[in-house]
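Today's session is about reading a structure prediction critically. Students often jump straight to the picture, but the first step is always the sequence itself: look for stretches that repeat, for charged clusters, for runs of hydrophobic residues. Only then move on to the predicted structure, which in these notes is written as discrete structure tokens rather than atom positions. Here is the chain we will use throughout the hour.
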Amino acid sequence: MNRSKPRRSARKPGRGALTIIAGMLIASGMIRLGGEAGLAFATEQDAVVAQSEETEAATCDPETGNAALLEAFQTREMRVSEREIQVEDRLQALRVAEAEIEEKLAQLQAAEAALSDTITVADTAAEDDLGQLTSVYENMKPQDAAALFETMDSDFSAGFIGRMRPEIAAAIMTNLAPETAYAISAILAGRNANVPTE
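Below is the predicted structure for this chain, in token form.
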């Protein structure tokens, strides 16, 4: 069998050359663009370095920079020392005030305890005196006790009658004038009338 070779299509002349020329133009443009960008970056970097060197020279000048830095440190140290002294003075004042307050508080507690003891003694003594006086009135003859109660204020005599044993109180009340007996009875009955029931 006779096989025929496939025919190659003929290239148009000049197309390959155009591609090569276009590639070269693109490469040339990129080289120029890269060169100009590099120059711009280099110029900017030089400006930053120059400015940094000027700043460093201004701040690190052995005569002015170190002296200013030393003066700033000394000023700060002086302020910190003054502040520490102020804080220590305040702490000392607080310690003194606290000690005075504790001393006054101890004195107040001692005075309160003494007053409480005095009140307790006075209450006990008054109660003892009333108990003893009530016992004296109970041991008197009912007629004699009634005559004494007639001369007392009704509130006062009602206090004693209320503390006595019922049979003795009844004997004394029997010997009182009806008006006095009524007044004492009214006082005794109304003594707890104002006490809350709930």
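Discussion point for the tutorial: DSSP finds six helices and no strands in the chain.
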